[in-house]
Amino acid sequence: MTTKDKYKKVAYYPGCALEGTGHAYNRSTKAVGKKLGLELVEVKDWNCCGAMEVKNIDPKIQTYLSSRVMSTAANEMDMDVVMAPCNGCYHNLKKAEYDLANDKESAEVVDRLSKKAGHKTYESGQVETIHALDWIKDSIGEEGLAARVKNSLSGIKVANYYGCMYTRPRHIFPEKDQGPGSESTSKPHFMDDLLAAAGAENVDFPLKTACCGGAHTLSDSDTSTKLVLNILKAAKLSGADVIATECPTCHSGLEMHQIRAEKMLGETVDIKILYFTQLLGMALGLKAKKVGVHENVSDSMKFLKEKGLG
Amino acid sequence: MPIHEKSLIRPENLTTHDELVMDGVDVSGHWSTFIETRVVKDYNEDMQEEIAALPGGEHIHRCWQCGSCTNACTVHAINPDFNPRYWIYLIRMGYESELLRDKDIIWQCVSCNKCTYACPRDVFPEGVMKATAHWLEKKGHTEKSPSMHFDEVFTEQIVKTGKIEESRTIRRFFSRTGQALMQPWMIEMVKRMLKGLPVSLLTRMGLATLIAPRTSDWSKASAALEEYIDEQHEKQAQALSLAELVETAKQDVAA
């Protein structure tokens, strides 16, 4: 089976954020999948992957939580690919995969906890975890996407923002940095490629993998506001109208601290923040509401109308 | 200058003499800035081992002080006092009193993993930062940091229900850290959210705060996790000789 076919039907792991603050990402991912004829089967009774917090209490608990999701997909649903649009979920599943293959102690703890919890222990290699970017890029591709575009994103200048957890640390992403065609951990380009195929003009954005301070968005808000302000300003100076995101934590962090910078520091940066799936969905002919633009905190409706979208 | 001597040139360690004559030579003023001699005797020889016993700290011994971590560090860029390389050095030397000068900022690591990405020795500095923050807290050098409170509220909810419901987590975090939820920027954000949201979604979110989403069939996993967490606490307390510490303190009080 080629990658193209393999990703046509995948287990879908939305994760907690996509049921809450990141609901627009959930809605737009599903809408884009439907429009592209890709099937998503939600992981049954999924649990939280551990996000960015559980590892600070104990990394092995995070490994267990993530492994349970993969175990369900593999052993109860007979799926061999899990697609997670959230960078946090994607990262944690990848990390669990790595730890289970390389760290005996982690594998022992996971086995013990799985047995007590009454489900099959996940064995590394049972599933392949992919991001929503891999899913669209590998199953549809740029050419396939360009052929399906109804409303080109032409005239929209986009800064592609990937965040931390999609590329770091390098060792948990063995498929990246494998030469032409593969994703790069230092200069990721999958989102750029897809949005360019949909007609967008990608700007040269130096902070693609900068940190938004998402882990401490509430516990150390001042630091997060400073980090987000850097990102917003750099995107604006790069000439972008829109920052495209691929992570609910980054996305809500950018939106929240855009407001916080305005209120606390008196610094206003006028730039739109949209999930890449929202931009793709509209390029494929979906209405703004179908991709949840109204669910974003920042208001992009007027801008999108001006650009002939939504 | 070797970095462990950095402390010597701190303003408070310099003495200036307005009038000082040595062997008949007047060395007052700018030239008479002397560094106090000092001998460090309070090295904590167990510090590296204790931090290595906490999750994330396992590989601290690999560090060869290249500085890639600090060079790549997100927090260092906005606060030059945040210096992972320096802290790793101090820990490995056992220079506890110096480390304690920075005890209130170590928890601020944002886990962006730029250090881990850059580290040529696989020290996993991000993990070392977390282990160090835990060590400071477990040893009683610091209060629980806001981040630790957040991690705990978050983990407790997952262990209990299998899932996170964000508004519940946020409310619990604010109440546990004694902060008002009604901060101006928070209100502004909710206002902007409400503007575009459909009633159905609002109802769903409202309901979620009342009835937390749960992973079904979670109770056995929950029990297994609780048991594991207790077991790990016990292990860590042992590694840090906390029981011994408490016992000594008790005897001290009794005497």
Polypeptide structure, described:
The complex is a heterodimer of chains A (310) and B (255). Chain A is α/β, with parallel strands linked by helices and 310 residues long. Chain A folds into two domains: 3-130, Glutathione S-transferase Yfyf (Class Pi), Chain A, domain 2 (Up-down Bundle); 150-306, Rossmann fold, CATH 3.40.50. Chain A is built from 13 helices and eight strands. Chain A has helices spanning 3-6, 23-35, 54-57, 59-76, 87-102, 104-117, 132-139, 141-148, 190-197, 221-237, 248-265, 276-283, 301-306, and strands spanning 9-12, 39-42, 81-84, 128-131, 157-160, 201-202, 242-245, 272-275. In chain A, the strands form two sheets. A four-stranded parallel sheet of chain A has the order 2-1-3-4, with helices on both faces. In chain A, helix 2 (23-35) links the parallel strand 1 (9-12) and strand 2. In chain A, helix 4 crosses helix 5. The longest helix of chain A has 18 residues, at 59-76. Chain B has 255 residues and is mainly alpha-helical. In chain B, 53% of the residues lie in helices and 4% in strands. Chain B has 13 helices and four strands. Chain B has helices at residues 47-52, 68-72, 74-78, 84-93, 96-100, 114-118, 125-138, 146-161, 166-176, 184-196, 199-210, 219-239, 242-254, and strands at residues 14-16, 21-22, 25-26, 33-35. In chain B, the strands form two sheets. Chain B has a two-stranded antiparallel sheet. Chain B has a two-stranded antiparallel sheet with strand order 2-3. The longest helix of chain B has 21 residues, at 219-239. Chain B is extended.
